[in-house]
Design a protein that fits this description.
Strand 10, helix 12 and strand 11 (300-305) form a beta-alpha-beta unit. The protein folds into 2 domains: 11-96, 3-Layer(aba) Sandwich (Rossmann fold), CATH 3.40.50; 116-357, TIM Barrel, CATH 3.20.20.70. The strands form 3 sheets. It has a 6-stranded parallel β-sheet with strand order 4-7-8-9-10-11. It is built from 14 helices and 11 strands. By secondary structure, it is of the alpha/beta class. It starts with 10 loop residues before the first helix and ends with a helix. The structure holds iron/sulfur cluster. Residues 133, 135-137, 140, 142, 178-179, 233, 246, 248 line the site of iron/sulfur cluster (SF4).
């Protein structure tokens, strides 16, 4: 049996950090990530409540946005912020008895404010040039998390990265956009400005890039700017799946992107391609077929397990076919293969992973 573990720093360290804070705080903003990690949120808030009984606790983040009713019921927060509506300013102003204007310009702002000084150590610089995604893939949380696609000013994004690079001496940049390449001219401008600076960067794209937008010029800019960890989103080479799940990429576009990257000198091992495993009613043969397609194209398959996301189209199907009760967020955890069935078992997944390790 697998043991259930909760992520996070040990409780003693968290408490000793809290003890360094002023005794009286007006509010504490807590963020959250995956729905299946909600126990960590509940625990965090219960500790905060103990140490700061008079402080208002405001919960936001992915879990709060995806299942706000659950968060309201179980998190213990005073307020759960589940969207980016300007109404939140009014609610927070009333709660804290002061003027709050966090949300009023959120969809028109030219730049996102992040204070890296709050971190104990800056290990990489965050690049965020857009929020949301114009696509609405049936398995993806992006549209739920950011209903409106918004672009920041590419010039300002690059300017900030260059300032941070100088201030912190850090050359690793991580792209956090869901759709960095969608506004191709903006992406090209950002990469171009980084190149023009003459500085040396290592850029990582853990959130998949859209292969469709990697034309010759984009591939060249990616190489020159220092793209180091490349991840592309393919998910499946099955054309029916590609069409029915949202049409973000088709095999032909994918192959063109790989060809363009090869021409710039990227090697197969430099180009990781995400493949989804464990989708509702997916057969293991589909995953093997996609793996072979990716290898033949000259890239490296990266198999990721499907996690059901509440509010997405696929979640309804997942609920029907999963042997687990998906009303309980713990069962959204990809590590248990939530949509396992006789056509795709945990043993099949292990076999796939082992075969990839041998490559
Ligand atoms: S294209 Fe990517 S980010 Fe956009 S909805 Fe589809 S999976 Fe999500």
């Amino acid at each position: 049996p697998r043991k259930y573990k909760r992520y996070g720093i040990p409780e003693e360290i968290f408490i000793s950090e809290l003890e360094r804070l002023p005794e009286k705080l007006e509010a504490i903003f807590v963020t959250s990530k995956m729905t299946y990690w909600y126990h960590g949120v509940v625990k965090t808030i219960s500790i905060l409540k103990k140490y700061f009984p008079d402080t208002k606790i405001i919960l936001g983040g992915t879990y709060a946005k995806l299942i706000p009713e659950h968060a309201k019921k179980f998190s213990g927060a005073d307020i759960v912020v589940s969207d980016e509506s300007p109404d939140n300013d009014r609610i927070l102003s009333n709660l804290l008895n002061k003027d709050i204007t966090i949300f009023q310009n959120i969809h028109t702002s030219e730049y996102y404010e992040i204070d890296l000084d709050l971190l104990l150590q800056v290990r990489f610089l965050p690049l965020l040039s857009t929020t949301g995604c114009p696509f609405n893939c049936s398995y993806c949380a992006s549209r739920k998390l950011f209903p409106l696609f918004h672009s920041f000013s590419p010039g300002k994004v690059a300017e900030k990265l260059l300032q941070w690079n100088e201030k912190y001496g850090v050359r690793d940049i991580t792209i956090f956009d869901d759709a960095f390449l969608y506004k191709t001219e903006n992406a090209k401008k950002i990469l171009g400005l980084l190149i023009k600076s003459g500085r040396s960067f290592r850029i990582h794209s853990p959130n998949a890039l859209h292969p469709r937008y990697i034309d010759r010029e984009m591939a060249e800019l990616m190489k020159m700017a220092g793209l180091y960890t490349i991840r592309l989103g393919l998910e499946s080479s099955d054309i029916n799946f590609q069409k029915s799940s949202g049409g973000k990429v088709y095999n032909k576009e994918f192959l063109t992107a790989i060809k363009n990257l090869h021409k710039q000198g990227f090697k197969p091992e430099d180009i990781g391609v995400y493949i989804m495993a464990g989708l509702p009613l997916q057969k293991k043969e589909d995953v093997y077929k996609t793996i072979q397609f990716v290898i033949d194209s000259g890239a490296k398959p990266k198999v990721v397990e499907y996690s059901p996301v509440p509010g997405t189209e696929m979640f309804e199907l997942a609920k029907k076919v999963s042997p687990f009760n998906l009303d309980e967020p713990l069962f959204h955890n990809n590590s248990i293969l939530p949509c396992r069935w006789s056509g795709f078992t945990p043993d099949d997944l292990n076999e796939i992973k082992l075969s990839l390790r041998k490559q």
